[in-house]
Write a structure and sequence with these properties.
267 residues, 2 domains, Rossmann fold, Transcription Regulator spoIIAA, alpha/beta, 19% strand
Length: 267
């Protein structure tokens, strides 16, 4: 069992300037599968939390996982450098890390890169590291070995998304995101499908998540919505799928179930 710190770097981009701040769903999903594998997980979101939270938790963790999107890459490397000074293992994931793994590994601040969807790759990597085994057996990672970049074969993404545990939103300071609203209602994000069959040249989605569209069932979606609505008290939801309506029948099924549950949701 390892103590794992997951970090979302601050965003210097337009969303931050206009005050649009949403929970880092990717890290919350990782927390769910890491905890299923009997690890202890803490999330620090530097969008909304002070740097001292990062510094405090770096002293007690074994391994640091950092989201690395392109607009956050420089901030991610600053965090990685801090973590290495504390003697921690550093793992990066996300879009920028997936496509620019060599550049990031060559900084000397990063030990491993998780490429693509990491819910099951990351726990496998953690297990291998904890058992002092070779990382070559873990699909979907990149690392340096004897001065060379090693890329293991791509890992298949989760096919049945209904089997992926819900994101651990309770590990996040949810009240600090409530400034992001729709018509006066605090907004929370949610993803109900992944992948894109179209492969547009301007978009990384199909390269990151694959061209096979994978969708959660309406029943699974409504179960998470119940938690968001009744337990967490949200009344506005952003479905952040690349292709929420690719199957109109599924989208209508979700809408029907929202009506059946009598949820008054803005989305």
């Amino acid at each position: 069992m390892l103590n794992i710190l997951l970090v979302n770097p601050p965003s210097p981009g337009i969303y931050n300037w206009i005050g649009l701040k949403l929970p880092p769903l990717g890290l919350a999903y990782l927390a769910s599968t890491l905890e299923q594998a009997n690890n202890r997980v803490k999330i620090v979101d530097l969008q909304v939390e002070p740097k001292k939270e990062l510094e405090k938790n770096l002293k007690t963790c074994d391994l640091v996982g950092i989201t690395c999107e392109t607009n956050k890459a420089f901030e991610a490397l600053k965090i990685a450098e801090l973590a290495k000074k504390e003697g921690r293992l550093v793992v990066l994931g996300g879009y920028h890390a997936t496509f620019c793994d060599e550049e990031l590994l060559n900084t000397g601040f990063v030990d491993y890169i998780v490429r693509g969807e990491g819910e099951y790759i990351f726990p496998q990597l953690v297990k291998v590291l904890e058992d002092n085994q070779s990382p070559h057996s873990v699909l979907g990672i990149s690392f340096r070995e004897e001065g060379k970049i090693i890329r293991t074969p791509l890992a298949p993404p989760p096919l049945n998304l209904d089997e992926v545990p819900f994101p651990r939103r309770d590990l996040l300071p949810l009240s600090k995101y409530w400034m992001t609203q729709v018509e006066g209602e605090p907004l929370v994000n949610m993803v109900t499908s992944r992948g894109c069959p179209f492969g547009c040249s301007f978009c990384a989605s199909s390269q990151f998540s694959g061209k096979k569209w994978r969708a959660r069932s309406p029943e699974n979606v409504i179960e998470e919505l119940r938690h968001i609505y009744f337990d967490l008290g949200y009344r506005a939801v952003a479905f952040v799928d690349d292709n929420f309506t690719l199957s109109p029948a599924r989208a209508e099924g979700i809408c029907d179930k929202i009506e059946q549950e009598k949820m008054k949701i803005k989305w």
